[in-house]
TrEMBL record:
Keywords: Signal. This is Uncharacterized protein. Residues 21-51, 246-269, 599-623 are annotated as: Disordered. Residues 1-22 form the signal peptide. The keyword Signal applies. The keyword Signal applies.
Length: 984
């Protein structure tokens, strides 16, 4: 958490206090008669009581009734809550992806679609929030967002925008070209922002629209505040569209934000906090007076009423950029914080006074503090001065700070306020310590895991004054203490605890346990025992003696004794995922719900009687179906060559040795030497191989490029993504941002890409205009238009080339929702244009100013769903044709069964199109495919360094020509195709 200073401080000991500039009152931990008296006296007291499920305010909120009941969608289920407690749920078990309430001005009594819900592509309507949800029909794509419209509820999908009438019936398509986002303030006034950033205002219920782009420049988002349309512009500016349609900027928005929960004036929880008070309490809270919780948020310690979810008091903590956690020791409550340069211990009983600091410069990445709840606190490192260098990690023979479970050989334990005791291990144990446990009066226990399966010649337990050393074998049955850990280091850990008789119990890292944890007990003589987890456990969240486990069948089990025993518990009031995310002594975060309280045995276990169900996380998502399909057939036998024991792309005269492979779009591959990066830069040569774009012969072009062309870098280039540029009758490529180091110099020198001085954002489309290349980079969010002067020299693969000078012409700021469109670029006549097309095929064109980089007004084009081959008689050239290159994923596929054994992968492709308002024609296409006839193994994964694609061109009359290209390690296959055209 980032710490921002608060302007006031409040005493946490008061249930509802007013903030003043006075010094905060002391905070004292609950104890004995004082705690019981406070609980009895306070009328607003809340207790943990029996475990219960609550809904934080961060859920999908729908509305609040006049009776103060909140309606929301939590983990896919419809619920009603008062305060934080769930009071009712829908009787059915249906799960929904989202929901909203219809605009108030459109709703009649008992309207069948008063509430609109959706799941994947199906839309439902309900007259009552918890009532029956009836299907209204299916959309061509899943719902991405909802909005109020002049006559119903608007639904935005990747394949278009639809409106649901409160009277029910199938959703109707909203015919507004280039619609990115829109919002209605009432039955007549609404604003639409287009994919190219233009603003359209209607004052007559959508009958006509007025272009207000000049008055709302770079508008990005719309919301309703009171009676006004509040338009957010780029930066901090905003405008208001009032009831008369006037656009003003000289007054602040008035009234609450529609579809947002009303503010709770009694809640002191900071609005800017990324999590709710209940989420924070469940993640790292402590029990406090009157059953409330003590937790932390940005710049403050907060007291949280667990009944209402409100923060009733705050204590400002001036800690800069620290991350902080609360804890309880024998003599009070403390706060530990960490910044890049130091770790700090603060005493909450004195209003946040700093008790101790520890220097952290150059300190290894260990857990910083260890607490035995209610007993003692320790710092992993020395009491004074910087942390010592780590001893050698003899097990891993690698850096001990590289996610190793090894810990510092020095440990500092808090004995009393301001008094700390340092413990140091002997050299024989220093290399293998995996955990420290603080004890009262400054004592400590060190857990040493010696490599091997059994201990040989070393005592299991050694006591030296206040230090007790317990030794186990790292792989001693049943232990499997991993050398390295996948989990990140923690500011505060509660993993282990020592009982009065010397028994260690808690959680250790394990290579055989879910979440890499195992519940263990080590008796006073040092003999370990591992406790079984519930059957089929896939994940577990722990905090000290508490833990919550989830099984493959979505059942939940709790433990309150460090994993010795587990009890089944009732699931959250939803059918969604019940993944436990974090826990504390207050409870657990589970999906969008919070469970408050733990069953310590005083209450009977709540048996989960719901039938088990498969985990949806293991299901592969179904790809979007293509809009149109390319119909091709084999035109001759395949031809192939193979050389064994080679790892190069395709056939070579001699085998190529194994190297680190990388992708180049879906048209090539690269091999990087396995010797890895050197301090002065990468050495050796990269082998680049690719198939030229849209070449029916599909030859392999090879080049050997020195890795020194990448300059000094410690990063391996794993992937080179490509953007596509229309250049007359050809399509050329530019290097875009991929995985690892930008490898543009490699593909530039190999002759595949236009040298533009580096990589640009992905995705990128462009067009050659005169002596320059115009590029449009990015999708949604900020976009840039830039120009690059074309090199005047002809490139030879394998030789260094001079990059063109890239100059930014302008920035585009598309509104929220523009990301559902794919962009294409090209020319209409001699003028550059940009085309945006959604998943449903609806397309608009905007002229691109080649000097300023701005986009003109949109013009509707024919739908991509009506695509025809360029050889079709309907595709004779017309004056208003725009010729563009369009990258896509699933918009164009292969006709099923036309090429037996070959299917479109749905992962990559680009097409050259001629587009006008009346039709759209396909001139050429490249499509990534899978060829099951030549696949070495089943599955959807395509390894890097391979190429599988179909290339098709429609250059004349009659059927088009195509080629199937399958290039693997040391093997290549090509087969001629005849492509008849496009089918639906």
């Amino acid at each position: 958490m980032k710490r921002a200073a608060l302007t006031s401080a409040c005493a946490l000991v008061v249930a509802a206090a007013s903030c003043t500039q006075a010094r905060p009152e002391p905070i004292t931990p609950p104890s004995g008669q004082k705690a019981r008296a406070a609980e009895k006296a306070s009328p607003s007291a809340s207790t943990l009581g029996p475990p219960r499920w609550v809904v934080p305010m961060a859920t999908d909120w729908i509305e609040r009734t006049e009776a103060g009941v909140d309606r929301s969608l939590a983990s896919g289920r419809r619920v009603e809550s008062r305060g934080a407690d769930v009071i009712a749920t829908a009787k059915d078990t249906a799960e929904f992806d989202g929901a909203t309430a219809a605009p108030s001005w459109t709703v009649a009594p008992a309207a069948p679609a008063r509430y609109v819900l959706f799941r994947e592509r199906e839309v439902f309507g309900a007259a009552e929030w918890l009532g029956e949800a009836r299907s209204l029909g299916k959309l061509p794509a899943a719902v991405q967002r909802t909005f109020d419209w002049v006559d119903g509820t608007g639904l935005v999908t990747a394949a278009g925008v639809f409106v649901v009438s409160p009277a029910g019936g199938p959703p109707r398509k909203l015919d507004l070209p280039g619609f990115a986002i829109g919002l209605a303030a009432d039955a007549r006034r609404a604003l639409v922002l287009t994919v190219f950033g233009h603003a359209r205002l209607t004052m007559d219920g959508g009958a006509t629209f007025r272009d207000v782009s000049a008055e709302l420049p770079d508008a990005t988002e719309i919301e309703v505040r009171g009676e006004d349309l509040h338009v957010l512009l780029r930066g901090e500016e905003s405008r208001l569209v009032d009831a008369r349609g006037s656009i003003v900027s000289d007054r602040a928005p008035q009234g609450p934000t529609r579809h947002a929960p009303p503010p709770d004036l009694d809640d002191r929880w900071p609005e800017e906090s990324a999590v709710s008070a209940l989420d924070a309490a469940a993640a790292y809270g402590l029990r406090w007076l009157e059953g409330d919780a003590l937790t932390v948020t940005e710049g403050a310690v907060a007291r949280v009423d667990l009944r209402t979810g409100r923060a009733t008091a705050l204590l400002s903590i001036e800690t800069g950029d620290d991350t902080c956690m609360p804890l309880r020791v024998k003599d009070g409550a403390l706060l530990v914080c960490e910044s890049p340069s130091r770790a700090t211990v603060l005493d909450l009983a004195s209003g946040g006074r700093i008790e101790r600091t520890f220097d952290l410069p150059d300190a290894p990445s260990w857990d910083r503090f260890v607490v035995a709840d209610g007993e003692a606190l320790g710092f992993v490192g020395p009491c004074e001065g910087p942390a010592p260098g780590s001893p050698a990690d003899v097990v891993a023979s690698a850096s001990p700070t590289n996610a190793s479970n090894q810990r510092s050989p020095v440990f500092c334990v808090r004995k009393s306020p301001g008094v700390w005791v340092e413990h140091t291990l002997a050299p024989a144990d220093a290399s293998d310590v995996v955990a420290w446990i603080p004890r009262a009066e400054g004592a400590a226990v060190a857990l040493v895991a010696i490599p091997g399966t059994f201990l040989h010649g070393a005592p299991r337990v050694t006591v030296r004054g206040a230090l007790r050393v317990v030794r186990v074998a790292r792989n001693e049955p049943p232990l499997d203490i991993t050398t390295y850990s996948s989990s990140t280091t923690a500011l505060l850990t509660r993993a282990l605890h020592v009982t009065p008789d010397g028994t260690i119990e808690g959680w250790l890292p394990s290579g055989h346990g879910p979440s890499s944890l195992a519940a263990v007990t080590i008796d006073p003589e040092g003999r370990p025992r591992q406790h079984p987890l519930p059957a089929q456990t896939v994940s577990i969240a722990t905090s000290g003696r508490f833990g919550l486990a989830r099984t493959e069948t979505e059942r939940l089990f709790e433990t309150t004794d460090h994993g010795r025993t587990f009890r089944p518990i009732a699931p959250p009031p939803s059918g969604g995922s019940s993944e436990p995310m974090s826990c504390s002594e207050i409870g657990c975060q589970v999906g969008t719900f919070v469970r408050i309280g733990w069953n310590d045995g005083s209450e009977p276990a709540l048996e989960d009687t719901t039938p088990p169900k498969p985990n949806p996380d293991y299901q592969r998502p179904i790809p979007e179906p293509p809009l149109v399909r390319l119909a091709c057939r084999y035109a001759g036998p395949s031809e192939g060559k193979r050389i064994p024991d080679s790892f190069g792309l395709g056939y070579t005269k001699t085998p190529i040795a194994r190297a680190a492979p990388g992708r180049i779009g879906f048209t090539g591959g690269m091999l990087i030497p396995l010797n890895g990066p050197q301090p002065a830069g990468m050495t050796g040569d990269a082998e680049i191989a690719y198939v030229p774009l849209l070449d029916l012969a599909a030859p392999i072009t090879r080049a050997t490029i020195p890795l020194s062309r990448l300059g000094p870098t410690p990063f391996h280039p794993y992937e080179i993504r490509l953007g596509y540029v229309l250049d007359g009758a050809k399509v050329r490529a530019v290097a875009t941002s991929g995985l690892g180091r930008c490898a543009a110099p490699l593909v530039d020198d190999a002759g595949l890409t236009i040298p533009i001085g580096g990589c640009v954002d992905d995705p990128t489309v462009g067009v050659v205009h005169g002596s320059r290349v115009l590029l449009v980079t990015g999708s949604g969010g900020d976009q840039a238009v830039s120009a690059v002067e074309l090199p005047k020299t002809t490139r030879t693969p394998g030789r260094a080339v001079l990059s063109g000078a890239r100059r930014e012409l302008g920035l585009l700021y598309p509104p929220e929702g523009a990301g559902r469109f794919d962009l294409a670029a090209g020319l209409r006549g001699q003028d550059p244009v940009v085309v945006a097309v959604d998943a449903g095929g609806e397309a608009v064109l905007a002229p691109l100013d080649p000097d300023r980089g701005t986009l003109g007004p949109e013009k509707r084009l024919a739908s991509l769903a009506d695509l025809a081959a360029a050889s079709d008689p309907r595709c004779a050239p017309e004056p208003d044709d725009a010729r563009v290159v369009l990258p896509f994923d699933t918009k164009i596929g292969l006709a099923q069964g036309s090429l037996l054994g070959v299917t479109a992968s749905g992962t990559a492709g680009f097409a050259v199109l001629r587009w006008s308002p009346s039709r759209v024609c396909l001139e050429a296409v490249e499509l990534a495919v899978r060829d099951d006839r030549h696949e070495p193994e089943l599955g959807y994964y395509d390894p890097p360094g391979t190429v599988r694609k179909v290339v098709a061109r429609f250059d004349g009359k009659g059927p088009g020509k195509g080629t199937l290209v399958v290039l693997g390690f040391g093997a290549e296959v090509r087969q001629p195709l005849t492509c008849e055209g496009i089918v639906r």
